[in-house]
Amino acid sequence: MSTVMEKRPASGVAAVRRRRVTGVGLLVTVLVVAGAASLAVGARALTPGEVWRGLFAEPGSDQRLTEIRLIVQTVRVPRTVLAIVAGVALGIGGALIQGCTRNPIADTGLLGVNSGASVAVVSATSLFGLSNPFQYVWFAFLGAAVAGVVVFGLASIGRGAGNPLTLALAGQGVTVFLASMTTAIALSDKESLNAWRFWNAGSVAGVGFDVIWPVTAFIAAGLVLALTTLPAINLLNLGDDVARGLGVNVALSRTVGILAITLLAGAATAACGPIAFLGLMVAHVARYLTGPDYRWLVPYAGLLGAVVLLVCDIVGRVVVRPGELDAGVLVAILGAPFFAALVWRGKFKNA
Amino acid sequence: MNATNTTDTTDVADVADVKRSVAPGVRLGHVSFVWRPWLVFVTLLLASATFLVFCLSISVGDFPIELPRVIATILGQGERVDKFVIMDLRMPRALAGLIVGIALGVSGAITQSIARNPLASPDILGITGGASTVAVFMVTVSGGAAAAVADSVGVSAAALAGGLGTGLLVYFLAWRRGIDGFRLILIGISVSAVMEAITSWLLVTADIRDVARAQAWLVGSLDGRSWDEVRVALWCSLALLAVVAVVAFQFRPLHFGDEVAAGLGVRYSMVRAVMLLCAVLLAGVAVSAAGPVPFVALVAPQVAMRLARFPTPPLVASGLVGALLLIGADLVARTALPVTLPVGVVTAAIGGPFLVYLLVRANLR
Predict the structure, then answer these.
(1) What is the mean pLDDT of residues A139-168?
(2) B333 touches chain A (CB under 8 A)
(3) Planar angle of CA A240, A92, A90, nearest 5 degrees
(4) Where residue A5 falls among pLDDT bands split at 50, 70, 90?
(5) Cβ within 8 Å, pair B189-A105
(6) Of B136 and A54, which is predicted with more confidence?
(7) Of A298, A342, B178, B279, which is most buried with the most CB atoms under 10 A?
(8) Does B158 fall in a domain?
(9) What residues 276-315 of chain B have any CB closer than 8 A to a CB of chain A?
(10) How far apart are CA A326 and CA A198, in angstroms?
(11) How far is A237 from chain B (nearest CA, A)?
């Protein structure tokens, strides 16, 4: 299945492992560098030394240092942390959903997560008159979670339990319905249309730690669940019958996988808007790099997701100064041509 | 393990396999086909239902006309008053619904067959994304060249050009010694993602009043169609459907894989390229007539497959389901709802749950 493996000499097992570990190390290094760059780059030009002092400064009388401290600690650190956390979550969610549905064009929006969150954002704005984006983060998360549960519940009724096709189509059906509700509400209420358009662009900026820590907790829970299902997903990709014959509880492992995806994608989407293309893209790139083994593919996808989202966020701060371009917009504009070029050269395989 | 068996491992397919093993073949001169009574029955039923809803959609309005009189007028009889109201005022809208529905349904069936993936639809071939981006650009950017173009050719025409341009771009980007379904959808998804990103960036930077207008256009609507617009769409779609009808006989074997199709004497690369081009153009026609009505192309083939108990999206039945969905949704939007909503909202609100209902019902059986 993997062209990568075929090119290797026959005694390749150790070499493959060494190469994969090196790859992880490389990605972590890139991520650390990007994280440092993310702290250093912004509307206000700061030297690395100033950033370093600002990171650890105590509130004091020095006005310039206080200013720097404010910029670094309340603007740049939160968005860097959120970009990494959400990028990991969306990358891993994207890889998992392709594994769970066995469909190479499944993305994290498939479970209704994005449309559920959208509906929640517009209804919260329209019903309760919320205007501050941080008040509707939790509505968005609730909407995403409810939509995910409904999709999975509908797909699990009767004999359909765990059938990937039923899941994908039920997800589409619910997504379709919720998206039309979003439009109906947004068209009749200008305030919610206004809230929705900003949320929909997808951004990691402006979210404080009071939101980031709970979101991170949900994502961490999703991460643990995801890691426990990886060996089973490898077997599920041999086909349900083979997996069952090898002793996998097919319905249980798919359920755990879907739950993990809902937690990961739901929390990330609530905090930074729908950036579903990120997950789809990095899942394919990760599969190209590692081959079809999900125990390697998923961590690669997570790291790649974090790197891509972080880099896009940094680029977004620089390109249209003094304004900013949303990270969600840039992920598509920068990532898609690169992705399409790889597709055209035939680098990707089916899930 | 790949997208192939996502379409083929359905329970529906099993049922159809059993049926096919006893289905007799029929040969009439150079044309041969398998006699499938249930498929024919469902198709005829859908056709009558579509005709009925079509007439109903014409009969309902501020000046109600009874169904028999509508049918008589369409068939060429009837009084002059009826003739004016029906043929001049209401026919364009109903006909636009019919054309858009059939075009989207057939286009979706072709796309899902070629991609061998039930999640594929012309939406991810870039037509919708490109048309939306251009339309939002036209609506939100005031002044300068964009406004001049918007005034002279209209938002719809510009959007059509954008949609077809993007669709053809995807088509040519995906071309590498022929069209491969998997490559096509991944390239289509990338291009659509770029278009969506640009659209959402335009929406974020625009004035909120323009955003509301753009959003209304993005949903798709049948309001205020005139004969001039509908006539163009009618002739284009008839020509395209004729091509599809001719090539369709060579299309079915593609489901067995390229090797088998080649063994059966099908020039699979050419057939796939022609059918796909037709799908892109049909979706373009639909966008020109009603804007980017979402989800019809995705839902209609899946619903048709399940109604007809057929293992692959049936072309005729998909088109009819699309038309039924669109005209029916337009009827509901005009009559049953307290607020006026664009037809696209209602097609999605009806089509999504109906697909879920069919899935759940199939699982419970």
Answers:
(1) 80
(2) no
(3) 125
(4) very low
(5) yes
(6) B136
(7) B279
(8) yes
(9) 294-295, 298-299, 302
(10) 9
(11) 6
B48 confidence band (pLDDT: 50, 70, 90): very high
- What's the CATH number where B210 sits? 1.10.3470.10
- In the CATH scheme, what is the code of domain A87-203+211-350? 1.10.3470.10
Q: Which domain holds residue B178?
A: 37-358
B271 in A contact zone (CB under 8 Å) = no
Is residue B27 in a domain?
Answer: no
What would the 3-class secondary structure string for chain A be?
CCHHHHCCCCCCHHHHHHHHHHHHHHHHHHHHHHHHHHHHCCCCCCCHHHHHHHHHCCCCCCHHHHHHHHHHHHHHHHHHHHHHHHHHHHHHHHHHHHHHHCCCCCCHHHHCHHHHHHHHHHHHHHHHCCCCHHHCHHHHHHHHHHHHHHHHHHHHCHHHCCCHHHHHHHHHHHHHHHHHHHHHHHHHCHHHHHHHHHHHHCCCCCCCHHHHHHHHHHHHHHHHHHHHHHHHHHHHCCCHHHHHHCCCCHHHHHHHHHHHHHHHHHHHHHHHCCCHHHHHHHHHHHHHHHCCCHHHHHHHHHHHHHHHHHHHHHHHHHHCCCCCCCHHHHHHHHHHHHHHHHHHCCCCCCC
Does residue B30 lie in a domain region? no
Q: Does the residue B32 lie in any domain?
A: no
Number of folded domains in chain B?
A: 1
CA angle, A254 then A256 then A261, to 5°: 90
Q: Which residues of A touch B187 (CB under 8 A)?
A: 340, 343-344
ipTM, 2 dp: 0.78
At A39, the pLDDT band (50, 70, 90 cuts) reads: confident
Three-point CA angle A337, A197, A41, nearest 5°: 60
